[in-house]
Amino acid sequence: MLSELRKIFLNSMDAEKKLQQRIFARLLRPYLEKLYRQAYWLTRNRQDAEDIVQDVLIKLYPRCEDLLNIEKLEPWLARILHRTFIDNYRQKQRRSMYVVASSDPESLELRNLGQSGSEHDSSAALLDIQAGLLQLNEDQRFVILMHDVEGYTLVELENILDIPLGTLKSRLHRGRRELRKFLAGEGTFC
Known about the structure:
The chain is mainly alpha-helical. It folds into two domains: 9-102, Rna Polymerase Sigma Factor, Chain: A, CATH 1.10.1740.10; 116-190, Arc Repressor Mutant, subunit A, CATH 1.10.10.10. It has eight helices and no strands. The chain has helices at residues 2-43, 46-60, 64-67, 73-94, 119-135, 138-149, 154-161, 165-183. α2 (46-60) packs across α4. The longest helix has 42 residues, at 2-43.
């Protein structure tokens, strides 16, 4: 009798776990590619980006039911991703590690930018934009990518990054100005 009750209990636990996994997958699957792209922009390294997305998913899995109650899941996920990136960066700093620019050939792939007539012109423009973005400081680059490439509004970014709207506007303006200078051929900038 006791062993039968135990089997029933274990089977019900198994079913509940499978249901939670399905709910989690259905909720987050539409956002995984965008999360990865954002992590890749932050880290400039495929493996680090995968690690950050994995860390985010590990953090969120126990809170699967809470995710159902979040009204705007995408900006919330972007905020969690950004904070996870910052946490990981701080941990690396504490371990006295240094960040090296990525030699990954797929580094900073831009999508749907530069719709010029020829494919060669378009790819050259993309490479110039990528090089210019790499010259920006981290804050400016992230705001430009999230706003201009990913399409987040400044209000959404204010909530994601938890910084004042005026600060976001100035980072966006200064970053765009520096990017324009770079693309106009005025050299590199800091």
